[in-house]
């Protein structure tokens, strides 16, 4: 959990990747790279990676739908940790932490979040697991 977390249903998922922490950080904080692995519509990603900076994109769903996402960077520890809000239309804003740590010749990327309900937590955990799988595939190429 992080300083912005209140109460609810927390989860944490991690993945060790065959890349450096610097490489994973770059892929997570550079708009062109981020949209490539995150599943965003080409040209839709904007990342202003600084405390108070905004981020946004349009996700492309498997059904062909377009889903706008966005939020604010709440904490930025260069090369190590991001805490960002995530505004999803029709749902309460969430706060997600992403940590990058060197681990045994690779990097361990961890996502933590607390959700208002168990159902939201299950969906968010599934989404975070997919995020980490996509990031790993991108940085391990």
From TrEMBL:
Highest taxon listed in the record's lineage: Bacteria
Pfam annotation, one family: AHSA1
Domain Activator of Hsp90 ATPase homologue 1/2-like C-terminal span(s) in chain numbering: 18-140
InterPro entries with a match to the protein in the record: ASHA1/2-like_C, START-like_dom_sf
Homology family: Belongs to the AHA1 family.
Name of the protein in question: SRPBCC domain-containing protein
Organism name: Streptomyces albidoflavus
């Amino acid at each position: 959990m992080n300083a912005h977390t209140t109460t609810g249903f927390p989860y944490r998922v991690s993945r060790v990747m065959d890349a450096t922490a610097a490489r994973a950080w770059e892929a997570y904080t550079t708009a062109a790279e981020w949209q490539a692995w995150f599943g965003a519509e080409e040209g839709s990603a904007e990342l202003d990676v600084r405390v108070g900076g905004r981020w946004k994109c349009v996700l492309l769903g498997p059904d062909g739908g377009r889903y706008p996402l966005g939020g604010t960077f709440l904490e930025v520890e260069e090369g190590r940790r991001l805490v960002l809000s995530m505004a999803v239309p029709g749902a309460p804003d969430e706060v997600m932490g992403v940590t990058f740590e060197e681990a045994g010749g690779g990097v361990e990327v961890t996502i933590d979040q607390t959700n208002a309900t168990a159902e939201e937590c299950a969906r968010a955990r599934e989404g975070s697991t997919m995020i980490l799988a996509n990031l790993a595939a991108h940085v391990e190429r």
